[in-house]
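Structure tokens please, single chain.
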Amino acid sequence: MKDIKKDFESFASDPSPKASAAVLNRIQTQLEKELPSPWKAARGLGLAHLGSSFLTLMACSQFGVRLFFDGEGLMHYFMKISPTFCMSFCGALYLATTVLLARLFLTHDEWNLILRSRGLSIASLALISLGGFSLVSHEVNFETGLLWFFGAALGGELVTYVKSPHLWFSHTSLRK
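Here you go.
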């Protein structure tokens, strides 16, 4: 549904013999029905975030919040590099997983709707997650929260630019 609305507008404003108003209204209503709902796209993004949170929190604890399994997980390896890297990379991994899952499960039109406001979407998810972690954990302070947020925003943004044939194949085969 790439640029269909623009195509319709150019069709409607074409100076050649006009189609009837009933036909134009019918086409307009059909196009509006086929456009993705922003609420549906947001719901899909939220569900992808819940799924990715579940997966990510099994492997890497975020501010001491960990699902299942004991031990350090990926945090052990990230901390060997540096605590700054650990906070930033944990945030990047957390939100990059969300964006990848959303890209796999949202329709093409819903994904384009999310991409139109990706900065707002990514920042919102990161801030909501950071707020949730600060409610659950006492380890969140300004410095660690800022590093985590920076990593999450950067990771989520960078994953939107990945052009992988595998992702496209998975996306199209899942939606049929």
